[in-house]
Amino acid sequence: MKFLNDIRLLLLGLWLGGSVFFIGVAQVAFSVLPDRELAGAVVGRSLTVLNFSGMAIAVLILLLSFVTARGTNAALAWIDRLLVLIIAIACAVGQFVIGFMIASVRSQMGGKKIDEFAVDDPLRIQFNQAHEYSVWVLAATMIAGLIAFFIIANRRTAAAKASTTNDPYDFTKEFKM
Q1: What is the largest CA-CA distance in the chain?
Q2: What are the backbone dihedrals phi and psi of residue 49, each rounded to the nearest 5 degrees, phi first?
Q3: For residue 26, which of 56, 5, 48, 11 has the smallest C-alpha distance?
Q4: Can you tell me the mean pLDDT for 53-71?
Q5: Is 85 in contact with 93 (CB distance < 8 Å)?
Q6: d(Cα 16, Cα 112) in Å, to the nearest integer?
Q7: d(C-alpha 8, C-alpha 5), whole Å
Q8: Quick one: average pLDDT of 116-130?
Q9: Burial, 43: exposed, middle or buried (Cβ in 10 Å; 0-12, 13-18, 19+)?
Q10: Among the listed ranges 3-7, 10-14, 101-105, which one has the minimum average pLDDT value?
Q11: Separation in Å, CA 82 to CA 58, 73, 121
C-alpha cells in the first residue's frame, strides 16, 4: 500500500510541477514571441495537454485511493478523493467549457487578431472574461492539488508512525509465531 501511495504522490507532484511550469511557459511565450497570437497558440496548446493530463492523472489517483485507503482515517480519505475529483472536474471544465467559449469567441472574430478589437468591443470583453475564468479554474485546481498532495503525504507518514508505536506494554512483536 505504501508503494501505491507513493505512486499517487508522484503522479500528483508531476501534475503540479507541470502546472507551475505551464505558468512559466505562458509568461515566456508572451514576452519572447513576436506575435501575441503565436504566444496564445502555444499557451492554448500547452493548456490542452495540462488539462487532459490532469483529468487522466486525477482518475488514476482516485482509483488508487480506494486501494490505499484501508486502515487510514476515513474522513481524510474522502477529503482526498473530493479534492482529486475537483481536479478532474476543473480540468474538464477548463478544457471543454471554457476552451469552447474561447474557441467560439475566436471564430466570431473572423480571423482578426484580438489586439485589433477595441477594449470595449463585446467580443474582446467575452474573450477576456473567458480567459479570466480559465485563470481562476487553473488556480483553484492547483490549490486543490496542493492540499491533496499534503493530505496524501501526511497520511503516509501517519501510517508509518502508527506502525512503530512505543507502547511499553505492546508484546505483539515479542511473541511471533
Answers
A1: 81
A2: -60, -45
A3: 48
A4: 90
A5: no
A6: 34
A7: 5
A8: 93
A9: buried
A10: 3-7
A11: 11, 14, 40
